[in-house]
Amino acid sequence: MIPISDNFYSWKKPIITYWLIGINLGIFCWELQLDVSGKLGNFVSNWGIIPEQTNTALTNAIFYNSAAWIVVIWRLIALPLSLFVHGSFSQILGNILFLWVFGKTVERNLGQQRYLLLYLAAGVFGGMMQIFMNPKLSVPVIGANGAIAAILGAYIIKFPKVKIDSILPLIIIFIPVEIPAFWYLFWWFIQQSFYGIGSLNIADGFTNPGYWGQFAGLVTGAAFIRMVKR
Q1: pLDDT digits over 76-122, tens only?
Q2: Which ranges carry the Peptidase S54 rhomboid domain (predicted)?
Q3: Residue 46 is part of which domain span?
C-alpha cells in the first residue's frame, strides 16, 4: 500500500513539513557523498544512537571516570541528530512519503510550533526508550521512524475514519484504492522489514530500525494530540 493523499485542503502551507522533508533529503544526499568517499560508517556511528555505547559511557561517568560525561553529553546530542540520518533509499523514501501525506494535515491542526515540538520530542523520547529497552545493542539506530510514528499516531487519533487515497501495487499493475487511515497504523510497522532495500555501505549493514522507539513515538503522538484536544 502506497499512501498518496488524504484530500484535506487548506490555505495554510505546511512550512515545517516542507523544511523537515528538505533537511532529511539534503542530509541523505550528503550521506551519498560520504558513501562514495568511504566515510559514511564514521558519520553514522557519530550521529546515530548506539545504546551500548551510551550505557557504557553513562556507567563509567557515574562510577569510574567523570571525564566520560563528555561522551554521555555527545550521545544525548545525537538523539535529535539521528532523526535526520537514514541508512537506505527505502527508509528515506518511506519516511518522507508518510511525512508528506500525514504530516502536513497534522501540522495544520496543531500549528507549526507544536507540530515541530511533537516531531523532535517524540524522536528523542523514542531514542531514549530504545536505549533503555535494548541496552546491549551495538548497531546504530538512525532515521525519523519514531517521529513519523508519532505523527501517524496523532493523525489516527484525530482522523480515525478518514479515507486515504492509495495505490495498491500488484506485480506490474497499480490499482488506485481508498484505505482507512487506521490501517496504515499496521502497515507502518510491517513495512519496516523492507527498509533494508537499497542500503548504503555502512559497516554493520542496514542499521536497527528501533521498534521500541517507534512504539514510544506512536504513543507520544496519540497522547500529545489528546492533550491538545483537551
Answers
A1: 888 888 899 888 888 898 899 999 999 999 999 899 999 999 999 99
A2: 74-227
A3: 2-227
Mean pLDDT score, 202-211: 59
147 neighbors 122 (Cβ within 8 angstroms): yes
Q: Please, what sign has the CA dihedral across residues 7, 8, 11, 14?
A: negative
**Three-class secondary structure of residue 71 per DSSP:** helix
- The region, left, alpha or beta by phi > 0 then psi within -120 to 50, assigned to residue 210 is left
Residue 30, C-alpha cell as written in the block: 550528503
Looking at the DSSP assignment, which residues form a beta bridge with residue 173?
170
Name every residue whose Cβ is closer than 8 Å to that of residue 192 and which is 6 or more positions away in sequence: 145, 209, 211, 214
Neighbouring CB atoms inside 10 A of 226's CB total 12
Q: Is the pLDDT of residue 38 over 90?
A: no
Is residue 29 within 8 A of residue 86, CB to CB? The reply is: no
State the Cα angle at 19 between 107 and 83, rounded to 5°: 90
Total number of domains constituting the chain: 1
Question: 50 versus 188: which is more confidently predicted?
Answer: 50
What three-state secondary structure class fits 193?
A: helix
Yes or no: say if 202 and 43 are a contact pair by the CB < 8 Å rule: no
For residue 192, the domain's CATH number is 1.20.1540.10
pLDDT recorded at residue 195: 66
Q: Which residue has the cell 492533550?
A: 227
